[in-house]
Write a structure and sequence with these properties.
Length: about 190
């Protein structure tokens, strides 16, 4: 079965706000994440509860989609994050269908096929932006929850394998470099 995103999730824009040096709510921006949508570092709280309308506070299971700039990614907001709101560079997707896992939606939005489709719809010349309507109109295949879980497991294994290959490559380079310097030391 295939459906458009607007038929499975509500989409709202992130909040535009000025941050302060202190606060009790984190203001998530795209720069807080790596290219894979993982939080890079601890995010300091820069907004207060008084500054934020309750509807903007993120809930676990919501999907953040970085809609502005050259690197668009999706990530699932979890309990590991501090109490947060998303900046205006994000579109926030709240699933209303129970048969779709937020992690699957995030995986799909990060997939090359979805990224290509969304890039075709991007607006702007210097800073490209994916519009809410473009995201709403994107069609997503919806397999059973069991298949979604298997896709996520396979994706996780692929990512682990990539990381292992990257580490092996670095270690090989370091080993060769050390051998070269050892050779230079022995043969001045």
């Amino acid at each position: 079965m295939k459906m458009q995103i607007k038929d499975i999730a509500y989409i709202r824009t992130g909040l535009f706000a000025k941050t302060a040096t202190t606060g009790d709510i984190a203001y998530l921006q795209a720069s807080h994440f790596d290219g894979n949508g993982h939080l890079k570092r601890h995010v300091k709280a820069g907004l207060t509860s008084v500054d934020v309308i309750t509807k903007h506070v993120l809930s676990p299971g919501e999907v953040l989609f970085s809609a502005k700039g050259s690197k668009n990614f999706a990530t699932v907001f979890t309990y590991e994050f501090p109490t947060s709101v998303a900046s205006s560079s994000f579109l926030v997707l709240t699933l209303f269908r129970r048969d779709i896992l937020p992690e699957y939606l995030s995986w799909f939005l990060n997939s090359p096929d979805a990224q290509i489709q969304l890039k075709k719809e991007a607006l702007g010349t210097s800073i490209q932006s994916i519009s809410k309507s473009s995201l709403e109109d994107l069609t997503i295949p919806i397999p059973s929850t069991r298949i979604q879980e298997k896709i996520l497991d396979l994706s996780s294994l692929v990512n682990r394998a990539k990381n292992i290959r990257r580490k092996i490559s670095k270690l090989e380079s370091k080993m060769i470099e050390n051998q070269i310097f050892d050779f230079i030391k022995k043969h001045p």
